[in-house]
Design goal:
By secondary structure, the chain is α/β, with parallel strands linked by helices. The chain is 27% helix and 25% strand. The chain folds into two domains: 168 residues, Medium-chain alcohol dehydrogenases, catalytic domain (Quinone Oxidoreductase, Chain A, domain 1); 137 residues, Rossmann fold. Bound molecules: NADP nicotinamide-adenine-dinucleotide phosphate.
Length: 336
């Protein structure tokens, strides 16, 4: 079967290989993978900037979708023909995560989805929403679930306001889920063109953070001076001080990303006088993934896919992600 391998860190080492087809053991499910989607973490992993201690080679890329083709002894959750997606935190089923589960993730440290067939533990898979194609379903495991979890933890309700940084994978799901909850969405982007597209998805206010590098006063102005109820912080150190400034008293900041740096400097008196709730987010367990999929299915929500590449074009997908020119998700169609 066709597969990819990363034998050393660096995108230049990514190679297309042939691997034998696996057979499911007890408790496992054999999936014919039909699609994958890229996340920023796949790029970091390939460059050796996420977990240096990973034992190489690995099969890259975390998120995939496909069809169950066989089940191992004792599996009752799935049957052949079921449409499934991967679960990113593959041991985390519900409740609080245990430290020993934290790094058990497909796409590094564990083998990922860029292969035509793979065996997964039955609890490391989720039924895909029935109205979505494999390509659409493949966008959900990390980006959608992270956005979902942030809005859940913020308890965003109708009439509240949410600040969304950028128009990448997590951010556009955050926009779609914020609108599903009846919230007002304020979106930041480096591009007026992307802001126009975000408005067609329901963004109420768009601010270009390149032409307005001091955007926090504009966010406050857009909320009548009050500040936003929740910030989905996908950028990190470079934006956190302004996110603190833009958030309302008793507001929520969901710390999701660190692409803008890992060492942030914030003013503690501002945080405590505002009673800010700063919440770290690291995706979510299976139970949340299932709840999210049910909501997506009920709302007939469709993920925003910017660009689809064929199986042989993985490198081009990574190159597009590195430019940051995409709007929403980058997906890989295994049938192409
Ligand atoms: N904690 C978790 O569980 C978790 C899960 C998923 C992702 N993440 C993290 O979340 C971040 C986003 O991931 P992703 O997969 O959605 O990435 P992505 O699709 O590559 O999106 C990145 C987007 O960030 C925006 N951006 C960059 N600098 C910005 C700035 N200074 N201000 C506002 N927006 C800015 C850009 O939007 P424009 O092009 O519109 O400017 C860019 O398209 C990454 O740091 C990733 O590691 C964390």
């Amino acid at each position: 079967m066709r597969a990819y391998q990363l034998p050393a860190f660096g995108l230049e080492h990514l190679r297309r290989i042939e691997l034998p087809e696996p057979q499911p053991g007890p408790g496992q499910v054999l999936v014919k993978l039909e699609a994958a989607s890229l996340n920023y973490r796949d790029l970091l992993m390939a460059k050796g900037q996420l977990y240096r201690a990973v034992e190489l080679p690995i099969v890259p890329v975390s998120d995939g979708a496909g069809t169950v083709c066989a089940i191992g002894e004792g599996v009752t959750r799935f049957k052949p023909g079921d449409k499934v997606t991967t679960l990113y935190k593959s041991r985390w089923l519900a409740g609080a995560i245990r430290p020993e589960w934290a790094g058990i993730e497909p796409g590094g440290p564990d083998d990922g989805v860029m292969r035509e067939f793979a065996c997964f533990d039955a609890y490391a898979l989720v039924h895909a929403p029935s109205h979505l194609s494999h390509l659409q379903a493949a966008t959900l495991p990390i980006a959608a679930l992270t956005a979902w979890q942030a809005l859940e933890m913020a308890h965003v309700t109708s009439g509240q306001s949410v600040l969304i940084l950028g128009t990448g994978g997590v951010s556009l799901f955050a926009l779609q889920f914020a609108k599903l909850r009846g919230a007002r969405a304020i979106v930041l982007s480096s591009s007026d063109e992307k802001l126009k597209r975000a408005k067609t998805l329901g963004a109420d206010v768009g601010i270009n953070y390149v032409t307005h590098p001091q955007w926090s006063p504009l966010v406050r102005e857009a909320t009548g001076g009050r500040g936003v109820d929740a910030v989905i912080e996908t950028v990190g150190a470079s934006t956190l001080p302004q996110s603190m400034d833009a958030v309302a008293i008793h507001g929520f900041i969901g710390m999701v990303g660190f692409m803008g740096g890992n060492e942030a400097s914030i003013t503690l008196t501002q945080a405590l006088l505002k009673r800010v709730h700063l919440q770290g987010i690291s995706v979510a367990p299976l139970e949340q993934h299932e709840r999210m999929n049910a909501a997506i299915e009920q709302a007939r929500l469709e993920p925003v896919i910017d660009h689809v590449y064929g199986f042989e074009q993985l490198r081009e997908g990574f190159d597009l992600m590195a430019t940051g020119k995409h709007f929403g998700k980058i997906a890989i169609d295994f049938s192409k």
